[in-house]
Amino acid sequence: MERVLEIIQEQLHLSGITITEDLSFQDDLGTDSVDLMELIMALEDEYGVELSYEEIDRRVRTISDVIEYLREQGADI
């Protein structure tokens, strides 16, 4: 799980911000659709899984949500 947080921090350029599972991508981190696509691609590369942008857009609001979704897709976190 620590690696997921590192990827999120790297992809969203969040240096100096403490990343916790309860943070909202949109409300707390200010991500937009381009940020989300880049994050999805980085997570796919890291964990060797295929993620659906539509599914993530529909279900994922917090960092905890993305971790749960990755696990559902078979990622070894």
Describe the structure concisely for a colleague.
The protein has 77 residues and is an all-alpha fold. Helices cover 55% and strands 0% of the residues. Helix 1 crosses helix 2.
What does this structure look like?
The protein is built from four helices and no strands. By secondary structure, it is mainly α. The protein is globular. The mean pLDDT is 93.
Could you say which overall geometry the principal axes of the C-alpha atoms support?
globular
How far is the first residue's CA from the last residue's CA?
5 Å
Question: Major β-sheet, in short?
Answer: none
**Integer-rounded radius of gyration:** 11 Å
The average pLDDT score comes to: 93
- Give the beta-strand count: 0
**Percent of sequence in beta strands:** under 5%
User: How helix-rich are the residues, as a percent range?
Assistant: 40-55%
Structural class: mainly alpha
Per DSSP, the total helix count is 4
Q: Which series of helices and strands comes N to C?
A: HHHH
Uncertain runs: none
Write the layout of secondary structure elements.
Layout: H1 2-11, H2 33-47, H3 53-59, H4 63-72
Helix pairs in contact: 1-2
Features:
about 80 residues, 4 helices, about 0% strand, mainly alpha
